[in-house]
Amino acid sequence: MLIYLHGFRSGPQSHKAQLLAARMAECGLGGEWWGEQLIWGPAAAIAQISRVIEACTKPPTLVGSSLGGFYATHLAERYGLRAVLVNPAVLSHISLAPHLGPQQMIYTGEQFDFTTTHLDELRALEIKHLSDSMRYWLMVETGDEVLDYRDAVARYAGARQTVLTGGDHSFTRWRDYLDDILRFAGFTPVIPAKAGIHQVAP
User: At residue 195, does pLDDT exceed 50?
Assistant: First the structure.
């Protein structure tokens, strides 16, 4: 199972989620995908994702973007999972502090209040030291206009790291890494061939 965790105010309609879900479906792995809308509120979201993880018959791999990367780190440590972290919000209680007040989800239009209680929940979820850095793959672009990529590079020292010059917070070269992400999660990507026949990628 591959579990995708979106970022602050985002959702499963995001470009990264849609591309990865489509690639998995193309490879016949649609049944191994979970990327639903997260319940708003850090503690509530962690409880939601935990239920999904605990229902899996074998350990899933987490893919988290921005705030989702922060969640993925907490859950990977709790359950001993592999995680791909895309421009993660490693200091989310600091980076999100300026956004206190009324907010609206980008895709659903759902409105919510981001409060100091939520900041406290984020502080409680912070992981300061990784138990096994080899279970993590950090993906960042240096042109991230929202977060300082150097915070993530330092936090995930010892992990597999893909640091690309330029780009932005959306991770503009996401499409180039879809199959590598599937391999990291233990899947074998396939290349669609003519007449509906699938050929294993080299």
Answer: no
